[in-house]
Structure formats: C-alpha cells, structure tokens
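Researcher: For the annotation table, I need structure tokens for Tripartite tricarboxylate transporter substrate binding protein. Please keep the output clean. Sequence:
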Amino acid sequence: MHTPSALSRRFVLRALSAAFAATLISFAPQHARAQDYPDKPVKIVVGFAPGGTNDILARLLAAKLQDKLKQSFIVENKAGANSAIGNDFVAKSQPDGYTLLVSSSGGLTTNPILMKSLPYDPVKDYEPIALLGSFPLVVTVSSSLPVKNFADLVAYSKKQKDGKLDNGTPTTSFVLVAETISSVSGMKFNHILYRGSGPVVSGVLGGEIQTGVLDSPAVIQQVKGGKLKALAVTTARRSTALPDVPTIAELGYPGYDAPIWTALMAPRGTPAPVLAKLRSTVGDILKDKDMIEKMHTLGMDPGDADAAALSRRIAGDIARWGQVAKAANIQPE
C-alpha cells in the first residue's frame, strides 16, 4: 500500500517527465527547422516600387543569402501607403522565416507618427534581424532648374507664389527629414507622395515637381549622368558615392545630421533558431568585402546584426521624429 508521501513523489515525477517530454517535442521541430532552414524559397517584401534604396539593397541581400544558404530568396514589391501595405503584409504573415521584410526607417519610425490607424505596430509585430545600412538623403533638382547650389535653391523657394517648393517624397521619413532642412534653412516644401524613389526621380526630371530629397542610391546615376543636380546631403559626413556634394552642416548649418536607414525584419513569433541563423548569416554578409564595396558605391554605410541595438534605434527614432512632427505642426493623416 502506498503512503501519501510516496504517491505525491510519484505524481511529481510523472508530471516532470511529461513536461520534459513536451519540451523535447516542442523543441525538436524548431531545431529541425533551424538545421534545414531554408528548405523552400524565401520571400523578401519591400514596401516600395522598384528603383529605390530598399529595393536595390533587398536585391543585393537576396543574391548574397541565396549564395550562402543555397535557396532562392525572391524580392517582392508591395508598394503603397508609405510602405504600410508591404509592412502590414509581413506583420500578418506566417512567422516561419519564409516571409521577411526589408523596411525603411520611415516604415518603422515615422509611419506610427504620421499615419492614423496604422494596421501594424513596429515594436510589437516584428523580430529585428539586422540594420542593413544607413545613408544620406540628397537634395536634388532637375538640371534645367535655374539654381546652381543649395543657397540658390533657398532663395528660389522664397520667390515661389506660395513660398514653397513642390517636393516629391516616397515615404514619411523623407518628409520629416525635409522638414528638418526647412527648420534650419527657412526653405518650405509642399510634399507630394509617390509610390517609390524611382517615380520621384521621374517626376523631377519631367518637371512635375521641383525637388526630390531622396535616398542616394536612387539618384546617383542621374547625378553622375548630369540629369539631376545634387545640392547637399543630410548626413554629418559627405557621401562616399558623391564626395563632391557638400553636407548641409558645411553649408552654414552646423550640427545638422539626419541619416536614413534600412533594416531586415521578420514577423513576431519567428522561431529563435531561425532568427539566429538569419542574424548570423546576414551579419557575415555585411562584413563581406564585396558587399561593403557595393554599398559604398551606392553611398551607404553597412550596418550589423545587433538586434538589441536595432530595437533601441527604432524606439529612439520614434521619439526623435515625434518631436520633429510636433515642431512642424504635422498632424497624422
């Protein structure tokens, strides 16, 4: 006959054994997925039309991931609503590592400030994988516009009927960077939203708009070809790809620095082993000499796979751009 204490011990042992077995069962599929991942094509979603920095960088990254992981990585453009359509698609995708997001800093840090009823939460709905790179925006105009430099553009803007330049923008983050330019220079903008940087370039070249404060990779070829004039860059240092273009700080606005960045994200709930494999692989890619050279050619500084630092950066930028929007009296729409 069993004593109560013996029965209690036996019950506890059985419970512990069952819990341990359940842990092994739940861990086994994740472990297998990490070892086999990826065993089918992976989709990388970009929330903009082809031709802009996020699209260019996503395609460079996809080629490198395909080479290292021996599986297809396919870039899919889901443009619209300041990249919110693509970002939301990934946020609601199956969290298995087979749908990833290359997001602009705007999609993660300014959409929450400038868009009402945003369908995704940039902090709660994603797993950070890597900061892919950072870069300046470039103040560009058509070569036919009668200005030679940044000071000329400031003067030209003040001669417009409403005192504003029509400025093309593909994303909310570019709007806020342009507003920081406005705050230091006095130049005012009427922001016109496009579906990507490529269409903004076409708008500037076609005379639909007067300026494009745009990502450097999207404008380099047109600048070097003489079709666009690059008047200034928004980072504290000059761009490696456009070394002759002065910084806004150099032009009489000391301390000015407004970089833009791009990140690789996964849906919240993606298995930890899969995330670890992606972070390790992407971290190696960002240290690859060929990748670094290609990014420098585009005017980008490579990032890293420090997920915790990326999380802090997202939170910090949301706070910063919130202050800029408040100062510019920009209300969410």
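Researcher: And a one-line annotation?
Model: The radius of gyration is 24 Å.
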